[in-house]
Amino acid sequence: MTNAADSDLARLRALVRTFVDERDWDQFHTPKNLACALSVEAAELLEHFQWLQHGRIEELGADKLVQVRHEMADVLVYLVRLADKLEVDLFAAVQEKMVLNREKYPAEQVRGDARKYHEYKK
Amino acid sequence: MTNAADSDLARLRALVRTFVDERDWDQFHTPKNLACALSVEAAELLEHFQWLQHGRIEELGADKLVQVRHEMADVLVYLVRLADKLEVDLFAAVQEKMVLNREKYPAEQVRGDARKYHEYKK
Amino acid sequence: MTNAADSDLARLRALVRTFVDERDWDQFHTPKNLACALSVEAAELLEHFQWLQHGRIEELGADKLVQVRHEMADVLVYLVRLADKLEVDLFAAVQEKMVLNREKYPAEQVRGDARKYHEYKK
Amino acid sequence: MTNAADSDLARLRALVRTFVDERDWDQFHTPKNLACALSVEAAELLEHFQWLQHGRIEELGADKLVQVRHEMADVLVYLVRLADKLEVDLFAAVQEKMVLNREKYPAEQVRGDARKYHEYKK
């Protein structure tokens, strides 16, 4: 039922597709180029946090929060576009990945343990 | 209506929230740490494309495509989690950003023009 | 005198060039691919820090520090390689950039001021 | 003899150290923050290449090449600074890593083989 025509992610996919088609930019959207662009946008998001001491929301002012919000939108736009090109159903992909994560990080073994969390992240 | 309890993105947010709470990992999830993790996952996705000559889907085998799909899921998980912590409605954020993008890149000016596309990206 | 045949950076350039030539990997080393690889290695470095509370050296164990050291080496290898392909003298480039940075961030205006530091980073 | 006071990398370390001390910015330079900044700069470098079809030097104009050169300088500045804070000798680290790389990618096995190169990169 996910990615039904009226789901959030399907609507965003359509929105981005229209934007790209109007500009004839599909020719630039190889999966590799989109993966580059996604990485670049993720770094632009990170840039807003890089010098914060604690990295909490209170350390961002209201203006910064608007910019952060826009960078997050850019990340999602490129992710949705890449999913469109690779015919990946993002909702199903997360569900599938979370099953693997549950096996990899059993709650009773890793609960509240930063050290274990690190090691498991390897 | 977006992020209604039954929307895709709201369901993913709930899925991730449960996973994190079961592990008592919320304590590690400052916005800064999540922005780092998002950037790291975006780079892991890019890694699969870095040496491809054209960067097209045919150059990835079926195995690689499964891995790519999982990296895309990881990116979305951290993005959804960050949105949860910053109280950002991702669907609305993309709609808002796309309005700005339409002003910044008027279709008639940038159509099919890679050079202009570059310059505009600045 | 910089990048004289016996400078550090020139010696690293030669070391990497030999390694690549022995493997006939130059064909994969377009500037774009090297820029991708550099970004991927920088993220692998960041991964070791992403969940640390303060991000200080004491929070990394000795084992992690060895891995961090190796990721830093990978970053430098790709940077030196990219400089080789683009005929950039890295030493001169830093000297040149630091002159610009001194103009952009006058010491008396930005001293010890995190907020200004953020704004200036824009 | 590497990182002798007059080596390239030692001179860059001193240059950056002076710049930071004049601005009292050492307080912001935790290893984690520097690793974030390095990743952000690597992405700014990548941004110049993201939409290029082949990713070759000819596709960058002269102006872009100057910008690329400055982004490369930024990457090196943060890498040298991180090495300073973690007391890593970058020259020795690359030498050490290249020994490991020679074991991991024996020339006779991986020569000119993109597919193997990918797999080995895993």
UniProtKB/TrEMBL annotation, chains A, B, C, D:
Signal peptide start and end residues: none
Pfam family, one: MazG-like
InterPro entries: dCTP_Pyrophosphatase, DCTPP
Highest taxon of source: Bacteria
Gene3D superfamilies: MazG-like
Record field: transmembrane: none
CDD domains from the UniProt entry: NTP-PPase_RS21-C6_like (cd11537)
Protein name: Nucleotide pyrophosphohydrolase
Lineage, broadest ranks: Bacteria, Pseudomonadati, Pseudomonadota, Betaproteobacteria, Burkholderiales
